[in-house]
Amino acid sequence: MKITCLGAGYVGGPTMAMIAAKCPDIEVTVVDPNEERIAAWNSDKLPVYEPGLDEIVRSVRGKNLHFKTDVESAIRSGDIIFVCVGTPTKTYGVGAGRAADLRYIEGAARMIAAVAEKPKIIVEKSTIPVKTAEALLTILRSNSRHGNFQVLSNPEFLAEGTAIADLKNPDRILIGGERTPEGEAAVQTLVKIYERWVPQERILTTNLWSSELSKLVANAFLAQRISSINSISALCEATGADVEEVAHAIGTDSRIGPKFLKASVGFGGSCFQKDILNLVYLCQHFGLPEVAAYWESVVRMNNWQKNRFTRQIVETLFNTVSGKRIAVLGFAFKKDTNDTRESPAIQIVRGLLEENANVVVYDPEVPAEAIQRDVLGEGKTDARLQVVNSAVEAAKGAHALAVMTEWDEFRTLDFNAIYAGMHKPAFVFDGRNILPRADLAKKGFRVFAIGKSALVP
Ligand SMILES: NC(=O)c1ccc[n+]([C@@H]2O[C@H](COP(=O)([O-])OP(=O)(O)OC[C@H]3O[C@@H](n4cnc5c(N)ncnc54)[C@H](O)[C@@H]3O)[C@@H](O)[C@H]2O)c1
Q1: How confident is the model at residue 144 (pLDDT cuts 50, 70, 90)?
Q2: pTM for the full model?
Q3: Edge-first strand listing for the sheet containing 358-362
Q4: CA 109 / ligand 1 centre spacing (Å)
């Protein structure tokens, strides 16, 4: 059997590496027209940073895992085609700012229809609105010579930063297919692949629409928990309650559970906001404005939390950061990834620049060009935004430190040396609640953390 994957991004690369590792008898080819990305997948510096990814790619690359740019021939030879292309939020026309932009999905379907010479199973792994499979089937069946395709929905639930562990040991695999004998047979073909390493009871099969909708709903529920605890973090700061104590107290209730209750500067990543907005758009489309407003509030709360953090920095630094040096520690949207899409750091750094601050950013995995591009736009520079190679360098001569990403290395920095090199009073704003607050206060820092009372000597 041959598998082809369209899209060598954060999902396509790691997912196919896992399938290749677990199924040595299957030839897996990942294709992407982006030459730079494919060259990186074939090099020692992979385009995606994920713990454990290097090892797994090295173990199968060149054996049964291949990264190529020749999309057409890979489609021709594949029996199963996974579609892992991007589905960003539409920026133009009807549904701009909400609906999913399906041009890459449609482009992939049209290309498959044009070049496929034999029956194929097409697997939607990208996150898409409900009923996209129907559109794909229509395009495939009306544009191909043989028209013999099955489309399955198999949304990916991996989280960046823990992608390899998630792929190795998923909570569940979801496969949706047409409720016809041919559809059921296609579902079983995919089930047999996952069964090589996933226990049968964790492989759920549903109809196409349930599967497509479940992915959007899962992300909406996860993001809702973050916005819920973030809303409470503001109340904690106002009242003297401690958000971590509240989260622990409610999380021990087995009906609530402890996960996704960490207050922070806000959620980021390429998926949560886009998928909720997509859900909002669907609800509006189906005449359910109250349901749309309910889910949209999750995104509104997240934006408010990001702006609240910027406001707190400005207000605490005596209502002006103009000309002051602010050290920003971390830029990725979470630890253990180099992905910066929708990272809260982008909005917060922009807010600080608008207040005329000098911002110095350090992130262990995100390159300087990506930080400049995300904040300022492609090819633009601004003397007030600097990127450096260590946290200590960023903190030198700073008026304040602001932690944006929970990288482990920030927990154990030499805070004595950092304090000595900073302007006084030296401020710390911990946007992830990872720093040793009491110790920092003892050293003389003025410490502000999400959902906690300020510690001011
Ligand atoms: N990133 C995540 O954590 C995550 C998790 C679950 C699901 N998803 C979903 O998976 C999908 C992909 O996400 P990603 O983060 O990997 O995106 P990405 O932007 O990193 O990668 C998408 C890739 O698809 C390529 N592409 C576009 N058209 C193509 C075509 N016709 N043929 C071959 N390649 C093509 C692009 O060049 C790009 O490299 C999205 O729908 C996303 O919502 C992402």
Answers
A1: confident
A2: 0.96
A3: 385-387, 358-362, 325-329, 400-403, 427-430, 446-449
A4: 14
